[in-house]
Fold this sequence. Notes:
- The chain is of the alpha/beta class.
- The protein has a domain at 1-27 and 43-112: Rossmann fold.
- 35% of the residues lie in helices and 22% in strands.
- It has nine helices and eight strands.
- It has helices at 3-13, 38-43, 59-67, 80-92, 108-111, 141-150, 164-175, 195-198, 203-210, and strands at residues 19-20, 49-53, 72-77, 98-102, 117-123, 151-161, 179-184, 216-221.
- Strand 2 (49-53), helix 3 (59-67) and strand 3 form a beta-alpha-beta unit.
- Helix 1 (3-13) crosses helix 4.
- The mean pLDDT is 95.
Amino acid sequence: MGSKNKLKRFKENETFGNVLQPDRDALTTADFSLKGKWKTDFFKNDHPIVLELGCGKGEYTVHLAQNNPKVNYIGIDIKGARFWRGAKTALETGLNNVAFLRTQIEHICSCFAENEIDEIWITFPDPQIKYKRSKHRLTHLDFLKNYKEILKPKGIVHLKTDSEFLFGYTLGMVTNQGDILYAHHDIYNNNSSPQVATAIQTFYEKQFLREGKAITYMQFTL
């Protein structure tokens, strides 16, 4: 994507009512104004709130919102030029149960209150295979502790990835931190996969499947 196109999308994001862009530096010293108030002040309903972390173009967030109108969805990513597409689609199709939050995932505890979130989706994150990058894996212990803080008791975390490495790594991490509710290393080649795991396929997921890659999926609580 060219720099001019990125700038255009950044500018357009500023006009979207479903895009929130808290000051990055401010979040390191103070909480976001909507923390603990997402239902009352933003969505203006009492429906459950579900996050998608590293939402990319936002297509998974949008599809979830379309399929579940009684649930509020927030896609989170630091790259606003990417989720511009999802935000624009949500506005064009009249989805009022969708928001996009531009921030680093490390700051989610500054954006959401304790027990404010019902579920979390992590879809095809960078597996960060090199050891020196391990702290950036979205299922690293530091992240899991943050998820536990903002999730309601027994709130479910979904991980969907084409990386067998990340799948195995996460199984090991969660075994010591919570409970595995479901896990399978090839959800499209077994009869036990929950419908929620296979109902939506992103552009990249379809590409992975065409390449013959297995898609792994797990549900766990913390």
